[in-house]
Predict the 3D structure of the following.
Amino acid sequence: MPAGVTLTAYRRPVPGPLHLLGRSENGLTFALGYALARVPRLLELFLAELGLDGPTVRQLSISLQEPDKDGITDIELWLPKRRLLAIVEAKKDGWPGRPQLSRYATRLEQHGAGRSALIPLGVPPEVPLISEIRRLRGVRVVPRRWADVLQTVSDAVLGRNDEQAGILRELKDLIQEVIKMRSYDREVLIRDLKIAHASHELFLDHNIYACQTKERSEPLFFAPCFVGAKNRRTNGIHYVSRVYCRSVVDIRKPDTLKAALGEAKGAVARIAKPLRAKKTAREQLEYLDGLPQKWSRGVGVLREKGWRDQTAVFFLGDPMRLPVPLAKKGSMVPVGFSMTLEQLMSARPGAFNC
């Protein structure tokens, strides 16, 4: 737009064309599809995170709102000769349901390229019911959060020309605006953690939080509230850790533990991949590459300690100490209680209410 000219729509500023789209699931997926088509680097990173990268994707066709007898899909990625590579089904509040995903898995089964993937795209705090499903009708299921897309968009900005960087900035702003309008505010899961219990050691030494499967939250961060210490100053929230992956395992079945570790390692590998070309990222890569070793030892502890058979396991980053510990006001942190990262960092020094 010419200098000095501003544009608004519905009393909201319109810095670029993507902001003319509706603040709906269709608006978000239209913006994502447009950016994938116009910014090759974004498409490259997006496909790599899904395990779909390769030379054949250079001739990709992207379809939005493709009608079919099984429904209307949000985003479809097609290879030459009408081979369907992936379907993305998105929600801006929650996650797509299994019946809908099963119908789209059938579409991929019929038209897929052999390594096709079905991508449910959703919003925490609730973990999708399909999160423990690796395949539907023989098709890989790869759940992703809008937060993951935001990170990919940020990674793609570096080195882009003005036009592409502008598209990516608009997409990032739009996603943040729409998701913040909804319930995307429970970023940090808070749970009681007994000092005398093995879970205390598991968290501090092995970057793992293990709990009952009824804990269905999928937070971006985890902050344990230590309880049971004789010294009151030891109790409360002292640390916060990033959540890289959540899986449900059966301690009696080594294959479920192996699959969970593999999924967690894959989450770290996707983050590390674009950093390996950066000379300044050596320390960050050393840190990321070291996490799977800690997790492997932690999974060994789970088996040795005879943890409950069905267990939800959160694979975490190194605990980061809070500037000021927070004591709990209340008898017990309720299941599913959480805060935003901003609330945690800006809480009144010394206390938090639950």
